[in-house]
Amino acid sequence: MNRKMMIAGNWKMNGLSAEGIGLAKEIAAKVKQKKRTCEFVVCPPFTLLNLVKKALRGSKIALGAQDCHFAEKGAHTGDISPVMLRDLGCEYVILGHSERRADHKESSALVAKKVEAAHNCWLKTIVCVGETLEQRESGKTIEVCSRQVRESLPEGSRAANVVVAYEPVWAIGTGKTPTPQEVEDVHAAIRQVLAKKIGKSEAAKMRILYGGSVKPANAKEMLTLEDVDGALIGGASLKADDFIAISDNAGC
Ligand code: PEP
């Protein structure tokens, strides 16, 4: 199956105006020199979305946000709606990241509501799943990830509007990674769950990214696996050279 590789940067809660604009422009200039065989996405914090959108003008890099509410508008102090993200020019939104599941007690049921709301306003979603170290050590990795995929994807999820990101919680920002074989096993299991949920042909088309301490040095072994369709990159996406080097090593 010919799935287009995706290289997505999750900037998390990092960057003030000048830095964000600078980083976006640097990435855009470097991506421009590429053959464009991959899809690039950058997901800055809400505060930088507008500025980064302008900095990316004329590039093929898509803009993404890191979360949204499930309501279109209303009394939700401090929240941002999917319609607002669309209005700002976002094409993607990351939902269900483990930091939100942990810091904001987001359940898969809530994630599914957000994913549905995002799809309803034509946003595409990057839906994150992944096991904690404790779950991994008790042999529950596949069970946990499978359940999260089943429960976090609403009706109407398709390869055209969803990208799944497998991010082991213990690998995020730690420099630790699963072995390539372990990643391949989890991705294959996720694809099986998807096949049951959305049908075999949609599942075969849906991209599954790996995320968790992806660096230029490990990108080749992690991102050239059969069932790995790109990367969701945290720390290393804050340096244009590293972000691009990862994409180079992934064959983009
Ligand atoms: C992430 O949080 O999505 C992530 C993958 O982080 P890092 O690359 O820093 O491990």
What gross morphology would you assign? globular
Rg, Cα atoms, Å: 17 Å
Question: Could you tell me the number of beta strands?
Answer: 8
The CATH superfamily label reads: Aldolase class I
Multimeric status of the protein: single chain
Q: What is the helix/strand order?
A: EHEHEHEHHEHHEHHEHEH
Reported CATH architecture: Alpha-Beta Barrel
Kindly report how far apart the N and C termini lie.
17 Å
Poorly predicted ranges (pLDDT <50, ≥5 residues)?
none
3D structure, described in words:
The protein starts with 5 loop residues before the first strand and ends with a helix. It has one domain (6-249): Aldolase class I (TIM Barrel). The chain is α/β, with parallel strands linked by helices. The protein has helices at 17-32, 49-55, 82-87, 98-103, 108-120, 133-137, 141-152, 180-198, 200-205, 216-223, 240-249, and strands spanning 6-10, 39-43, 62-65, 92-95, 124-129, 162-166, 207-211, 230-233. The mean pLDDT is 97. Bound molecules: phosphoenolpyruvate.
Describe this protein with a few key phrases:
252 residues; alpha/beta; 8-stranded parallel beta barrel; 11 helices; binds phosphoenolpyruvate
What's the topology here?
Layout: E1 6-10, H1 17-32, E2 39-43, H2 49-55, E3 62-65, H3 82-87, E4 92-95, H4 98-103, H5 108-120, E5 124-129, H6 133-137, H7 141-152, E6 162-166, H8 180-198, H9 200-205, E7 207-211, H10 216-223, E8 230-233, H11 240-249
Parallel strand pairs: 1-2, 1-8, 2-3, 3-4, 4-5, 5-6, 6-7, 7-8
Helix pairs in contact: 1-2, 1-11, 5-7, 7-8, 10-11
Bound molecules: phosphoenolpyruvate.
